[in-house]
Structure formats: structure tokens, C-alpha cells
Amino acid sequence: MASGLRERKKAETRRALASAALRLARELGPDGVTVEAIAEAAGVSPRTFFNYFASKDDAIVNISPTEQSMLLADLCDRPEDEPPLDALRAMVQAAAARFAEDADEMLVRHRLAQEHPSLAMRRSARFAEVERALAEEIARRTGLDVDADTYPALVVAAALGALRVATAVWNETGRTRPLPELVDQAFDQLAAGLNRAAAPASPA
Amino acid sequence: MASGLRERKKAETRRALASAALRLARELGPDGVTVEAIAEAAGVSPRTFFNYFASKDDAIVNISPTEQSMLLADLCDRPEDEPPLDALRAMVQAAAARFAEDADEMLVRHRLAQEHPSLAMRRSARFAEVERALAEEIARRTGLDVDADTYPALVVAAALGALRVATAVWNETGRTRPLPELVDQAFDQLAAGLNRAAAPASPA
DNA sequence: GGAAAGTTCTGCAGTTCGTGCAAAGTTGCG
DNA sequence: CGCAACTTTGCACGAACTGCAGAACTTTCC
Q: Comparing C-alpha atoms, which of A136, A133, A112, A138 is closest to residue A123?
């Protein structure tokens, strides 16, 4: 079995490194923190840091290693004949639910990314890594060619954009509106052809 | 005036560096080429390289320094009362026309990015930098709050996604269909609410 | 319990990146 | 020419990241 002490220690070390990286980055700025400092704060050697994260920025951004495969798995779980945008909406809602669990860390990361665009870039780049796999699944379902038709990659890009935008608004507005509601609103706008906003609450 | 010899030399050095970076990256792989080699191929000192590009990857990807401001300028040139998605479509068409000018280099970069995801990440990250500015312009036009409403950032994300996807399909299919047509198809799909593909040529 | 096998951690050495600084070289202009 | 503004360059430096090989630890199996 694989649930031994070894697995637990690895997971804990990873969390310790990510958490130390985030804390130090907030205190000193992303450029003020070194890998050596992160490793020391987590109680491991600097060399070990690179057994867990490929780069310093990755540790700060900390896209969970399983988040990407979960996105794909959630999409594949949807019924085959469901319209692509609806299947993707469900997938994004599932991801949003996971985000809401670590709401506090998410907020810190969001603020950091606001001030230091390089982190925002790294973050969105992480999500772009799954785009290809998701687009291939949509292509398979629709019988289209992912390399020759615009639809599969486009609908995936729009869906991940909706996730990104909804999360940003959620963080920016201090969670006055629940994240699932924002995700739904974004997907409603996509489904409506993005023709101007469906006014959520027009001011007097 | 600023159109002296100095300006011309700077532009030429920049092109020499970018072109050397791309050629060497194709021959040796992105990791096999060093800044020192790029600088030598361009006939300048390694130190000078960093006066033109912030990183080695930036030189290979080479998003023209003016491309980002051109996107924003093209959007601002559109009439105020035009529907946002239509204004963005025109902006993307203008960008696509610029892309078509350097079609050959574009193709090499596309192939490199296919094989080395880190370059693709850097590339899309470059485009993400303008998202904020574009979203603010859309927010201004629609009277929405860019931080509190999903619509402005969402429609911009979808439009840039359409540009990215259309360009990818264009490169992938060997330019059998003109880029403007692919861009139009992508925007038609967005305007139609992404509800399955508007079949371009259904198989028998 | 204890040895063998498999893994993770760690130190070390080395390459490359990227930056600050100040001197040297170029260009623009009167 | 001669001064001002700008660009290039060399130097030094810290930090990122990688390969390697041995130490330390877990797991497994007897």
C-alpha cells in the first residue's frame, strides 16, 4: 500500500515549503526571498527544495500537483452527450469549490499577484498547461479535430478564462458574493454570446 | 526629432538579437542556447543583451515591444458605442494582420512552443499583461466596474483566447485557410454562445 | 529483531542567469 | 571642436538550478 509514513511526510514537507514560500514572499516581496530562506523555514536543505518545486515561483504560486489532473477528471466525469459549455461549467464549479476551501491562502496569493505581475503570469501559465488536454477531450466528444477546428480550444479557453475572472472578482470584492454565483454569472454571459453584460444589479 | 541614426541602430540590434535567439533555439533547443551565444551571434557583448531583453526566453518569444500598446490603441480607435465583442473582434483582426506579416518567424516560434511548453507559457503570459488595460477600457465604455463585474475581463479573455486559438490553428493547418477567416469563425462561435460548433464543413 | 531493497535527503561543484556600477565609446547638437 | 546625452561594455556578485554520489531513512521480507 502507498499510504505509509513516507507519503505523509512528503505531503507535509510540500505544504511546509509552499506555506513558508508564501509567507516569506508576502513579507519580503517575491524577489526578497531566496530558496535558501524558504528551505530553512521549512526545515529542509536548499537542495531538497528542488525535489518538490521546479522553481521558486512555483512554490509561491503553488498550483497543487493534482489540481490539473482533477480538472481533466471532472470533465471526463460529465455525461458524453452534455453540451461542451455545460460540461465545462460543471468542471469549473468543482474547481471553484476546491478554491473556496483555501480561501485565505488564495487571497494572499491574489494580492501578491496583483503587485507582482510575474507571479500572475506564472499562475495563468500553470492553468494553460491543461488547456491542451481539455481541448482534446472536447474534440473527442464533438468529433472535431483539435488542430484544425477552433471550437474545442476556444471553448476551453473561454471556460478557464471564466474561472480566472470569477476568482479575481471574488477576491477583489471581499467575497461579498459567493464564488459559485460569480462562476455561474460568467458562464451565463458566455452562453449569451457576450453581448454586453446581463446587468446583475444596476445602480439607481 | 528622434529618428536619427541612434534609433535605427537600436532597432537593428534588437532584431539581430531576436533573430539570433530564434535561430539558435531552433538548432540547439531553448536550453542549449546561452545568452553569451546569442550576444556573440548578434555581435554585441553579453551584457548588452540585457539592455534589450529581460530574459533569454523573452528574446526567443520576442513579443514586439509595441505590440501590446498597439492592441490597446486599436481598441480605443473603435467607436464608443460599438458592442464590446465587435470592437474586440476588430482589434484582434488588426493584430492578426500584423502576425501575417512575419508568418515565417511565427511558424518557427509556434513549432518551438509546441515542443517546449515553457516558451508557450511565456508567450501567453506576455499577452496576459495587456488584459488588464483592455478590460479597463471595456469597463469604461460599458460603465461597469472592472473589479466587481465579470463581464469586462471575461470578454477580453475570450477575445484574446480567440486570437491565440485562431493563430494556433492557422499554424497547425499549414495556412490552408486565411487567418482573418479563422479569427472571424472564432468570434462567430463566441457570439453564438459557444453552443457546439457552427459546422464549417461537416464530414459525410 | 534484523538485513536487504528502495526511497529520499543532503552537500558539493559547476553552469548560467540576471543586475548594479562605473568607465569607455558613440551620437546629437551648437 | 566640445559639451551633453545616450549606449555599450567589463567586472563583480548573488542567486537560480542541475548532476552526482554518499548518508539517512522507510518499507519489506524473512
A: A112
